[in-house]
TrEMBL record:
Coiled coil: none annotated. CDD domains: RF3. It comes from the Bacteria. It comes from Wansuia hejianensis. The gene is prfC. Residues 9-278 form the Tr-type G domain. This is Peptide chain release factor 3. GTP binds at residues 18-25, 86-90, 140-143. Belongs to the TRAFAC class translation factor GTPase superfamily. Classic translation factor GTPase family. PrfC subfamily. GO terms for biological process: regulation of translational termination.
Length: 530
């Protein structure tokens, strides 16, 4: 095997999805404990990248009131080279969060055992399903009182529509949490919360039939466990690697990230079950990640870090081959040969030049404003374009009014540029020109970002008038539909995106359903393939 294929083979690139507070950050931190090295996206092979660098980067964003970082953490563990893509949650939930999932080969879904499936998980999950990537479930906070285990699994299956296969099974929860039973080895991994935050600490395993098990679990708990296992063996889906790989079956694990319990066993199983970099579809067919030729696509553009220079950072996911800093590449959409690494890329002392990287890795490159989301970079000798990244449905809408009409040009330029970076989406009334602009965002914070950036970078003041719409749908079969004839509800609005595609805005999901009922054959989509 060639060296580069060995490097690609050992890559595991995944995103962690969850609802805020389920424990994503804590779980990620515990993962890092097992690996050690921390690298930030854009410095994939950093020499001395430290935590310091990570926080500096975020500090700049904080100062500017913009927090759109989705960082990538790289570390080695058990012979694997792991790239964790952080999906921004909380307030800074945005379209970037969705797009990050386009760069991952699998997803880890963290669920709070006392809360079950929550809104944000549901949204992100949909994107994973669309991509048919493997989805692994970690049910967290078992050291707190959790919902009934069967109910939790039921909820995942019903709410998310994916079959589940518990790899281990919890014994009690909260004060009565005693550990997890591994269905394969038939051993109980005994819970202890003495390992808080450290890797050290003994992990005790007791075979389920060993009388010593009763030293840690009560007789009642043991009997319950036996009953549950019997039920499980009869009712639950069997582990099936093929189904896992297609995203049809989610292996489920239980643990407590905070106390570092069940994390390593999860990591080990997960790494073995998930795949090395997946092939991706391009206009020339499916591209094998193991081919020698480098190729990548842009999935995120980081806004100007420095107000005085309109520079940006384009984050790309390497999809095939090996990247070498000095190599000449081809930017398909720009129809240009270029070198990705330029001296400007070292924006701060503590960011590092990438010497080499492989399929599965994420690199950040200096972008003088030439890249767009979804662009392909490949070798000049083998030109092709990857499938575009879909546009995801915004959930918040506002009408933008420009306060100083004399600055029309700056306004149009600024708003278009920000839209090109993918932070906002712009719509126009179906009838009418650029006078009436509607902005749609996935996370409300992006409105503040828009206002701030237009003022600071383009010197344009705007007013945002919130609109009541929450749902937007693209028309899937627009060749067969006369948009003017669509009969909607009275609160529905017809708009157009920048590409002139018609869209419908709705205030609630009921109106979406009603419009579908009233227009036979109409197909409405939540994502738009570009
Ligand atoms: P995120 O928003 O999903 O990144 O969640 P965090 O990792 O920040 O965790 C949210 C809160 O839950 C924090 O206060 C954590 O300390 C706490 N937490 C995370 N994991 C556990 C766990 O396993 N048990 C308990 N009891 N608390 C946890």
């Amino acid at each position: 095997m060639a060296d580069y294929t060995r490097e690609i083979e050992k890559r595991r690139t995944f995103a962690i999805i969850s609802h805020p507070d389920a424990g994503k950050t804590t779980l990620t931190e515990k993962f890092l404990l097992y690996g050690g090295a921390i690298n930030l996206a854009g410095s994939v092979k950093g020499k001395a990248t430290s935590r310091h660098a990570v926080s500096d980067w975020m500090e700049i964003e904080k100062e500017r009131g913009i927090s759109v970082t989705s960082s990538v953490l790289q570390f080695n563990y058990g012979g694997y080279c792991i790239n964790i893509l952080d999906t921004p949650g909380h307030q800074d939930f945005s379209e970037d969060t969705y797009r990050t999932l386009m760069a991952a080969d699998s997803a880890v879904m963290v669920i709070d055992g006392s809360k079950g499936v929550e809104a944000q998980t549901r949204k992100l999950f949909k994107v994973c399903v669309m991509r048919h990537i493997p989805i692994f479930t970690f049910i967290n906070k078992m050291d707190r009182d959790a919902n009934d285990t069967f109910d939790l699994l039921d909820e995942i299956e019903k709410e998310l529509g994916i079959a589940t296969c518990p790899i281990n099974w919890p014994i009690g929860s909260g004060k009565n949490f005693r550990g997890v039973y591994d269905r394969d080895t038939r051993k109980v991994l005994v819970f202890s919360d003495t390992q808080k935050g450290t890797k050290e600490g003994i992990e005790e395993e007791i075979p389920v039939d060993d009388p010593h098990l009763l030293d840690v679990v009560s007789l009642e708990q043991k009997e319950t466990l036996e009953e549950e296992i019997e039920l499980l063996d009869g009712a639950a889906a069997e582990f099936d690697q093929e189904k896992v790989s297609k995203g049809e079956l989610s292996p489920v694990f239980f643990g407590s990230a905070l106390t570092n319990f069940g994390v390593e066993t999860f990591l080990k199983h997960f790494l073995a079950m998930t795949s090395s970099p997946l092939p991706r579809t391009a206009d020339c067919g499916v591209v094998d990640p193991m081919t020698e030729e480098f190729s990548a696509f842009v999935f995120k553009i980081q806004a100007n870090m420095n107000k005085n220079h309109r520079d940006r950072i384009a984050f790309m996911r390497i999809c095939s081959g090996r990247f070498d800093a000095g190599m000449e590449v081809y930017h398909v959409q720009g129809d240009k040969k270029m070198r990705l690494l330029q001296p400007q890329q070292m924006m701060a002392d503590d960011r590092h030049v990438v010497d080499e990287a492989y399929a599965g890795d994420i690199i950040g490159v200096f972008d003088p404003g030439i890249f767009s989301i979804g662009d392909t970079i490949c070798m000049p000798s083998r030109k092709f374009a990857y499938e575009g990244i879909p546009t995801f449905a915004p959930e918040h809408f506002a009408r933008v009014a420009q306060l100083d009409t004399m600055k029309r040009k700056q306004f149009v330029k600024g708003i278009n540029q920000i839209a090109q970076e993918g932070a906002i989406q712009i719509f126009q009334e179906a009838k009418g020109g650029m006078e009436e602009i509607i902005v749609g965002v996935v996370g409300v914070l992006q409105f503040d970002v828009l206002k701030y950036r237009l003022e600071n970078e383009y010197n344009v003041e705007i007013r945002l008038d919130m609109l009541p719409y929450e749902y937007i749908r693209w028309i899937g079969n627009r060749d067969q539909v006369d948009v003017d004839k669509i009969i909607g509800t009275s609160d529905m609005k017809k708009v157009m995106d920048l590409k002139g595609r018609p869209l419908l805005l709705f205030v609630n999901s009921w109106s979406v359903g009603m419009t579908l009922d009233r227009n036979e054959g109409l197909v409405l989509e939540e994502f738009s393939k570009n």
